[in-house]
Design goal:
With 383 residues, the chain is α/β, with parallel strands linked by helices. Helix content is 40%, strand content 16%. The longest helix is centred in the middle third of the chain and has 25 residues. The relative contact order is 0.11.
Amino acid sequence: MRNHFDNRLHESCLLAARVGRSSVRSRSMHDCSSTIDGVGSKWCYCICGFLPMTKENIAAARELNSSMNDLNLRKVPLPFVRIFEAAGRSASFAVAARELNLSPSAVSHSVRKLEEMVGLRLFERSTREVRLTREGAILLEYVQRGIDEIQRGFAMVKSEQAIPLRLHTAPSFATQWLLPRLAGFVREHPNIDLRFSASTEYARFDDDFDLDIVYGEPTPSPHEKIPLAVEGLAPLCSPELAQRIRVPEDLYLQPLIQCEVQLFQWKGWFETNHLAPPTHYGLRFDRSSMAIAAATDGLGVVLESTLLAERELNRGALVRPLAGCTRELEYVGHYLVHPRRRHRHESFETFKRWLLRELRVDVYMGASPAEAPATASDRGDQG
């Protein structure tokens, strides 16, 4: 059992070292670089992941990279790792000793041996306290993630309680498409414990989330990436405002609502329909859900996804005033992303099947939605 636990910990630590912050991708990570030298345009890379590029982090990352590349992690005894984690978390050898039922001298000796093995100083010591060095703090974060992953694995195979399914999603997809359909999933699967979070950042799979629904094509990663439904972008407005719009040129006389984070903007739509883009727009929002709500309230015409506005279209709160006489922009707007794992808990597969079925995505039969990437002239401003 101990050898198996040792191997699982080392594998998790290795995985954290390989993936690290690359799976915790914020939007600014598009600017990062993982050169061997460790320096990116905004981020520096250490063997545990990406860090904000400061002089101190660059120096620490280079030193940790060099030491860890020369180290065979499988030769590091598991007790050393557990002692280091307890000492680093508590910032005290005495507290770590009490927690692990050891003497403070044994903790100090184990930490010293670990430092010798990695060739780095992990703690600053004084007569009154110990504190992690920068390298020690970096290492502690990913050791803790490795341990957390092992604990989650044991919980999955041992616990009789349902393990919660942790879903991260783009905010407007959550409010406009997912939540209106969630009641059906809950009725079908009342025993699945769902936990949701929504933001414009990418999910952290190593310790926070199981699935991520992202807007726009994800950055390259080792994770599974499934394109979801092809979305059509069309002018949408309230039925009252639609009475004033008979031909595309009528849009010049109406307030145009724009979502600034949308991949395709009004400029691209006008160019696609061989019209000159207007020089002035009405309201601007940073969420599709807000732009759709503004159009529903009669504040103007919004260029939006008919998938995200499906509820408003079905109940007649929004209409497509130029349907049939203009060309829509079509693209794959959202992607399902999750780690490539051999074993997953049952609720993961259940929710994934439900989501793809609702979106009519048949990846299990080898088919996926036909991507319709727009040309450069279609794309317009990227916001």
